[in-house]
Amino acid sequence: MCELFGYSGQHDRDLARWLLPFRQRGGGTGDNPDGWGVAAWNQDGARLVKSPEPGHTSAQFATLATTLRARLVLAHVRKARHPPVPGMLNTHPFAHACCQREWVFAHNGLVPEVIEWQARAPVCQPLGDTDSEHAFCHLLTAIAERYDARDHQPWLRHLAALAEEIAELGKFNFLLTDGRVLVAYGHDRLHHLEFADAQGAAALIATEPLTDQAWQPFVPGELRVYEDGALLARLLTEAPAVQS
């Protein structure tokens, strides 16, 4: 049911060690054949590349995985559930503007009831049909109500509260970034890896561990926020357990 990958670092880094096995999760070693996407930021700015084709057979994804150097990355491989067909407009990550920033989002899970929610003053409208993009617009609306670029705590607390509410609809793991901070919410299925080396601090997020390194599972309902590879904030919600 879709998989996520994220990276926040102090400096641009070669990510092939993690992106190559993540690419294989797109229909090879994982049952997520219905599209892939990678958003990346470096000194030259942001780049978003995506396709509704299987990631594990995509030559474009293979080239990107082996050549990309970035300080911030958000990637996704899709298992189409809502709607249950591939398509460019429904391929993650999604991008929308809010608070004079460009935000990018990707989701693992299923929360179809969120499509029926009505926001008082929505800051964006979905371009596709997924529950994921509808949830994204609701999250951005919540951020806009509290956003302050100088103080992250108010909008992060508001975001965490809404993430908990959406998680009650089903299953809700996501990555979200404005090109500076990387927000990772683990309702039930997310892992993090943090280390420092000669290239500086680094934090990686993945649905399932991608290497034999010491990945750690999220506490259910945990929200972690990184900036330049360092943990900026950690909040715990009371998201319900996913029913098997």
Structural classification: alpha+beta
The geometry reads as globular
Q: How many helices in DSSP terms?
A: 4
Helical content band: 10-25%
What does this structure look like?
Helices cover 20% and strands 38% of the residues. It has a single domain, classed as Glutamine Phosphoribosylpyrophosphate, subunit 1, domain 1 (4-Layer Sandwich). Helix 1 packs antiparallel against helix 2. It starts with a strand and ends in an 8-residue tail after the last strand. It is α+β, with helices and mostly antiparallel strands and 244 residues long. A 7-stranded antiparallel β-sheet has the order 3-2-4-1-10-9-11, covered by helices on one side. A 6-stranded antiparallel β-sheet has the order 5-6-7-8-12-13, covered by helices on one side. 45% of the residues are buried. The chain contains 4 helices and 13 strands. The chain is globular, with a radius of gyration of 16 Å.
Please specify the SSE layout and strand pairing.
Blueprint: E1 3-14, H1 16-24, E2 36-42, E3 45-51, H2 59-67, E4 69-77, E5 94-98, E6 101-110, H3 131-146, H4 153-167, E7 171-177, E8 181-186, E9 191-197, E10 200-206, E11 216-217, E12 222-227, E13 230-236
Helix pairs in contact: 1-2, 3-4
In short:
It is built from 4 helices and 13 strands.
Q: Which features characterize this protein?
A:
single chain; 244 residues; alpha+beta; Glutamine Phosphoribosylpyrophosphate, subunit 1, domain 1; seven-stranded antiparallel sheet; six-stranded antiparallel sheet; 4 helices; 20% helix; 38% strand
